[in-house]
Write a structure and sequence with these properties.
Elements (H helix, E strand, L loop, with lengths): L7 E6 L19 H13 L4 E4 L8 H10 L5 E6 L6 H14 L5 E4 L16 H20 L3 E4 L4 E5 L15 E4 L4 H10 L2 E4 L4 H17 L8 E10 L3 H19 L10 H8 L6 E2 L3 E2 L14 E4 L1 H14 L1 E7 L3 H11 L1 H4 L9
Parallel strand pairs: 1-2, 1-13, 2-3, 3-4, 4-7, 7-8, 8-9, 9-12, 9-13
Antiparallel strand pairs: 5-6, 10-11, 11-12
Helix pairs in contact: 1-10, 3-4, 4-5, 5-6
């Protein structure tokens, strides 16, 4: 697989109280540490470097789960979602640095500023533009706390006096701090990403949309006088693979038929986050875009990474992902359900193709 640098492959662990997430059929042990550890160890055993942990108010606390999984694994890297407004920057900087040290530098952070049940945990900043301004200030302060001692900072949203984080983050070749992943497609979100993120995450848009956004983010990085190494790019998408394309498409279409019977077509005109709205509007361009990007799930309730799916044989999906890599995407967060079954299938059948130079030339 070609790209702008080393390519990283992560899985997804749902982290919900109730079973049945996106059709997952596991019931026994759902929500227990033992089952989550089985997920994390399967990630290690089948070629993945780590996993994004599902997050949101009303779910188990993601930082607590990530800490527990790091303690029960040896190479697993938890990508933990956190929210400014739920965390204070100094509190978060200290907690993250401690976990990063204890895990030997395995911590990854996903910064989330989008819609959630904000009032439930006391976050009263409901205006999206102000939330992203706050996120920008949060990230700048966290980075200072990870690299400086006796930090005094008085900003619009946060202040600290003579603040020193001990221990600091685990030192690595990329610098002494966990990597910061960030999503969002609005102009305000993209400016934050261009200035302060390490990795900008995209959902499963077609190649032309991703290329447009990468170009824009690279230009923005110059406009905002980015002080960090160049912004990298990641793709979070569902991948439905089987040994033949015919079987993969049969399964995908059966799932969508079930979704349609259960929920009916979902309206796409009410106000949503910009990135989610972009995904829903893809169905107007066609049911299958590029070579194998399936847009129908979004018509019947699929959201986020479940809105569009890459469907096909291992060779076909590897080729599709290789085309994203050619655009500069170097981080891939993949998933399908049942999670425990698919982490092994996709890890064993797809990842070997993606980790060879020939992967991007498969057509």
């Amino acid at each position: 697989m070609t790209g702008a640098g080393p390519v990283d492959f992560l899985w997804y662990i749902p982290n919900t109280v109730q079973p049945g997430h996106r059709g997952d059929d596991v019931v026994d042990g759902w929500g227990t540490l033992d089952l989550s550890v089985r997920h994390a160890r399967a990630v290690e055993d089948h070629g993945w470097s780590g996993a994004l942990l599902g997050a949101g108010w009303g779910r188990p606390d993601t930082f607590t789960l990530g800490t527990a999984l790091a303690a029960r694994t040896s190479t697993f890297r938890p990508l933990i979602a956190i929210r400014p407004g739920y965390w204070q920057p100094a509190q978060f900087a200290a907690a993250a640095a401690t976990l990063d040290q204890l895990s030997g530098g395995r911590l990854l952070i996903n910064i989330v500023s989008g819609v959630d049940d904000l009032a439930a945990y006391g976050d009263l900043h409901s205006d999206p533009a102000r939330r992203y301004d706050r996120t920008h200030e949060f990230l700048r302060l966290v980075r200072r706390l990870w690299r400086e001692d006796d930090v005094t900072f008085r900003g619009e949203f946060f202040s600290v006096e003579n603040s020193t984080v001990r221990p600091g983050p685990y030192p690595s070749e990329r610098g002494p701090q966990p990597r910061l992943y960030f999503g969002g497609a609005s102009p305000a979100a993209e400016r934050v990403s261009a200035a302060e993120a390490d990795v900008q995450l995209f959902w499963g848009e077609p190649l032309d949309g991703i290329a447009e956004r990468i170009d824009r983010l690279r230009r923005l990085s110059t406009e905002v006088d980015r002080e960090h190494p160049p912004l990298e790019f990641g793709l979070r998408v569902t991948t439905v693979i089987r040994s033949t394309a015919e079987e993969a498409w049969r399964i995908a279409e059966e799932r969508v038929a079930t979704m349609a019977a259960q929920s009916g077509e979902v309206g796409r005109n009410w106000r949503r986050a910009v990135g989610q709205q972009r995904l829903y509007e893809l169905a107007d361009r066609g049911e299958v875009l590029d070579t194998c990007l399936y847009t129908a799930p979004g018509r019947f309730g699929g959201g986020g990474a479940g809105t569009t799916w890459l469907v096909g044989s291992p060779d076909q999906v590897a080729a599709a992902l290789g085309r994203y890599a050619e655009l500069g995407v170097t981080h891939f967060i993949l998933s399908d359900t049942p999670y425990l079954e698919e982490v092994a299938r996709i890890g064993d059948q797809l990842l070997p193709l993606l980790k060879t130079p020939a992967a991007s030339s498969v057509r």
